[in-house]
């Protein structure tokens, strides 16, 4: 589009910073390299005794006000900075471009700075938000994000084999308008919940978090809406969940990794596969090997078959529950908003 056409359409000219997607991926890889380079982290700290189920093990035993502040203060600053950028970007309503807006440059710089700060903070204080909040809050923040994605994408790709649920369209559009605020909170909160560590589960988690932080920095760009990239991020949670179940929950002694892995694959086949713009042949080329692999596993280990429906049931039932909650909140917001003019009129 020429500059004359841009002006004629009333679109304000704006600087566009060149960006290649692999630059962001290279930084994420560099972040993981720094984690390994600065290890070990807990060698000089006593770890609190394990208290069993739903106890987050990686907490220092002698946490004090300073160690807690070392995690909570950066977390709050990180969150407020990103929320501020999102709000300013929404007010500006920029075009979607293959490059970076100034607010994207700021977001990348802020996220990179706090990523590096968290490595240093863990090295010196070995503390995270886990000292003061339950482990379930970290896990559920990301699970709710995945449910909101299913809800938000219902109109575009459907929920069941490419078929959308019209009832979900209204709440889905509400989520689409405001998802940046919640998604950024879920990502940043989870990032600061854990101290940096080099167990397989932690490394997988921080690799995933770095990719999500990259994605959250690219709002209002074409990179942010690339359907293959967003599908990859959405389904990567399956692999991460399976790894955590295998290495962390039971240290590889027959934990429910297959429930997370194959349950997540089932959700992919039912929903996410149908948002890639593929024809029938393309879908079958991806789906048949996955179905064959799942079938082979359950033929060899039929006792695990009962666990297969659990993840899909949680995801789909949860999506409808979230739709109801979003609808209630949006109705409350609209009623509250409509009451403001009447109240102002009454005060005249």
Shape: globular
**Would you list the SSEs in sequence order as H and E?**
HHHHHHHHHHHH
Compute the number of helices.
12
Number of strands: 0
What is the CA-based Rg, rounded? Answer: 22 Å
What's the N-to-C terminus distance? 49 Å
Low-confidence region ranges = 1-12, 336-348
| Helical coverage, percent range | 55-70%
Coarse structural class: mainly alpha
Strand content: under 5%
Average pLDDT works out at 87
Largest β sheet strand count, sense and barrel closure: none
Summarize the structure.
Helices cover about 70% and strands about 0% of the residues.
What does it look like?
The longest helix is centred in the C-terminal third of the chain and has 37 residues, at 310-346. The protein is globular, with a radius of gyration of 22 Å. The protein has helices spanning 3-8, 21-38, 65-92, 102-125, 135-152, 154-157, 169-193, 200-217, 227-249, 257-270, 280-300, 310-346. The chain contains 12 helices and no strands. The N and C termini lie far apart (49 Å). Mean pLDDT is 87; it is low at 1-12 and 336-348. By secondary structure, it is an all-alpha fold.
């Amino acid at each position: 589009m020429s500059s004359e056409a841009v002006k004629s359409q009333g679109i304000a000219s704006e600087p566009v910073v060149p960006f290649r997607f692999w630059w962001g991926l290279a930084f994420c890889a560099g972040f993981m390299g720094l984690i390994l380079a600065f290890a070990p982290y807990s060698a000089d700290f006593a770890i609190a005794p394990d208290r069993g189920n739903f106890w987050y093990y990686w907490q220092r035993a002698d946490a004090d006000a300073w160690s807690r502040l070392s995690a909570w203060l950066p977390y709050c600053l990180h969150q407020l900075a990103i929320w501020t950028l999102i709000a300013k970007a929404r007010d500006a309503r920029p075009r979607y471009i293959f490059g970076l807006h100034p607010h994207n440059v700021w977001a990348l710089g802020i996220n990179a700075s706090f990523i590096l700060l968290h490595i240093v903070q863990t090295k010196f204080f070995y503390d995270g938000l886990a000292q003061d909040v339950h482990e379930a809050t970290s896990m559920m923040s990301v699970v709710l994000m995945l449910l909101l994605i299913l809800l938000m994408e219902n109109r575009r790709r459907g929920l069941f084999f490419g078929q959308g649920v019209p009832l979900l369209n209204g709440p889905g559009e509400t989520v689409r308008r405001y998802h940046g605020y919640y998604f950024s909170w879920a990502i940043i909160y989870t990032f600061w919940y854990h101290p940096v560590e080099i167990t397989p589960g932690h490394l997988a988690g921080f690799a995933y978090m770095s990719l999500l932080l990259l994605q959250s920095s690219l709002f209002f760009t074409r990179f942010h809406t690339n359907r293959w990239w967003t599908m990859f991020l959405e389904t990567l949670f399956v692999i991460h969940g399976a790894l955590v179940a295998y290495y962390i929950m039971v240290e590889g002694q027959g934990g429910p990794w297959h429930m997370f892995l194959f349950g997540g694959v089932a959700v992919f086949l039912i929903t996410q596969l149908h948002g890639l713009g593929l024809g029938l042949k393309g879908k079958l080329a991806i789906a048949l090997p996955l179905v064959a692999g799942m079938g082979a596993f359950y033929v060899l280990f039929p006792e695990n078959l009962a666990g297969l429906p659990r993840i899909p049931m949680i995801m789909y039932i949860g999506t409808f529950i979230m739709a109801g909650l979003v609808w209630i909140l949006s109705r409350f917001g609209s009623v509250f908003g409509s009451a403001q003019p009447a109240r102002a009129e009454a005060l005249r």
